[in-house]
Amino acid sequence: MSDIPPARRRVSWLAHGIGNLVVVLLLAIAGWYLLADPRWSPFDLYPLPFNAGVFWALLFVVWAGFNLEFRGFDRLRQPARGVAITAATAAFAIGVTAAFAAGLGRLDPDFAFSREGGLGYFTAALFVLFGFSTWVLAVVNWSHWPWTDLGLKQPLVGFCEIAFLMLPTIVLYLVLGLPAVSAAGSPILEVDPLIGWYYSIIVAIVVTGLTMQNWPWRLVRGRSRAAVTAVAGNVALGTALYFGLLAVCRLLLGSSAVAELGAAVHQFPAQLGVCWVAWMILWANGFGNKPTGFGPAVNLGVRVVVTFVLAVVTFVVYYRFVAGPVLHEPAVAGGLHGNALGFMDWFALVTLLYVVGFGSYGLPKPSGEPAAEPRPAPVPA
Fold first, then answer.
1. What is the pTM of this model?
2. Which of 106, 193, 207, 232 is 20 to 30 A distant from 363 in Cα terms?
3. pLDDT tens digit sequence for 19-59
4. What pLDDT digit, counting tens, does each position of 328-380 carry?
């Protein structure tokens, strides 16, 4: 038995990453059985309001972790820090989900919890889809521009981002989101293609901002010009990804399942996209965003390829072998079960809470990483 104190033990980056993956999977599946499983959970939360609560929880982590860089929480040592972050996340998610359903739902039937299939919960939580773009982009593509340029420090930087980006997020929701799910709406895009397309933009933000370290937008000189270029570039790249991911999904699903899904297949770029985003989050935080020792082109290219391949494998394994037999989710089409925007978002949330919030508490640190707290700022969902 090694005589090296546990706190000082080091493992390879791969062993550390696999350890994070194992812990996150165990926590995610155990939490699923407790809170959401249609067969085993003592609560009647699947798929809504459980999915809505997960979306709001992710938005809280974006605000507290990305925009505010966990200011206030970083004063606590582990595991108290992780416990506090998790408790605050749960309280926010439950509170906002209930407030919309019981409060606004009494005034506007679109948000009522009594809407068939829990659609009222989803109507409110759809706001988070647009928040994933605006508030995440401000961190990974803009690097807190313009607030740090003005000399502001945290937490004022984060509060300014949250406040000033609230208006464009609401506008996006009112123009694109709400009409698609309102009983009396006249949508620009129906809900399935809307989710598929807009989530592809989020994938573009995470790919360029996190996995590719803000390339190619960082090549533009001037912070303001780079920020504008990142917005336009991510919309263009996300649109291209939508059609590309849709083609991949059609291939993976098979012709019979695609025919049975009908128009709903246009949401599947988001279903594959969330698998990719979940892996990019885990790869950056749990696996050290490897490789890092080659030239920029090789480093960035390998990360993109590795995380995408893992996403494709996860998508197939989830829909064909896990969602039905393991998670007890209902059939969708052609032998497929589940909805990746539920479980894989839950997986991403657990990843952020454990790997970032708790700092992979209990696992040996990878070689080369300092033992001192705090851990680096989180990366986006």
1. 0.94
2. 207
3. 999 999 999 999 999 999 999 999 999 999 999 999 999 99
4. 999 999 889 999 999 999 999 999 999 999 999 999 999 866 544 433 444 43
